[in-house]
Design goal:
The chain is built from five helices and two strands, in the order H-H-H-H-E-E-H. Helices cover 64% and strands 3% of the residues. The model has no long low-confidence stretch (mean pLDDT 90). The chain has one domain (18-147). With 159 residues, the protein is mainly α. The chain crosses the membrane at residues 20-40, 60-79, 84-101, 121-144. Keywords: Membrane, Transmembrane, Transmembrane helix.
Length: 159
């Protein structure tokens, strides 16, 4: 038997859970905030559904890439039993940073999508509030949900 604690997930289980929670979280978020984009009033239902699926797939790729980069630079072979918070912090910084860049690129440069007037916009970076919140809330829930750290019967964390 390995020395791994049985009440914590193995790294592969944690990655699988993270991918599933990420997919579901971003899908729900995309459905909830698509009315804040012009496609909601200008697009067909087919275009709207495609946009939700396309954006959710991109979100999953960004999230998984962010986690894998964070694990590469800040993780250890003992993750998810060790280095939980450094990996989370790096993953969040990578995903959030990419989101700021992507919003700027696709709104200002490419004009690939546009916000409606009802989208709250963050001053100075001119990025929508909901995409920024999405990249704080969904990764938090997915990461700690995947690691089951919120469970009251868990022991202390080895950070």
């Amino acid at each position: 038997m390995t020395s791994q604690r049985l009440d914590r997930p193995h790294w592969l289980t944690a990655l699988r859970r993270f991918a599933l929670f990420t997919l579901l979280g971003h899908l729900l978020w995309e459905v909830a905030h698509i009315p804040l984009y012009t496609i909601w009033v200008e697009g067909t239902w087919g275009e709207i559904v495609f946009a939700v699926v396309h954006c959710t797939g991109g979100d999953l790729q960004i999230a998984m890439s962010s986690l894998l980069l964070a694990l590469f630079f800040f993780g250890t072979g003992a993750w998810p039993q060790a280095r939980v918070y450094p990996v989370f912090g790096a993953m969040l910084a990578i995903g959030f940073g990419y989101t700021i860049f992507s919003e700027w690129l696709n709104i200002e440069v490419r004009e690939a999508w546009a916000y409606r007037d009802i989208m709250p916009v963050i001053p100075f970076i001119d990025a929508g509030l909901t995409p920024m919140l999405q990249w704080l809330v969904v990764p938090f829930v997915a990461y700690f949900g995947a690691l089951k750290l919120s469970s009251p019967h868990r022991g202390g964390l080895n950070v």
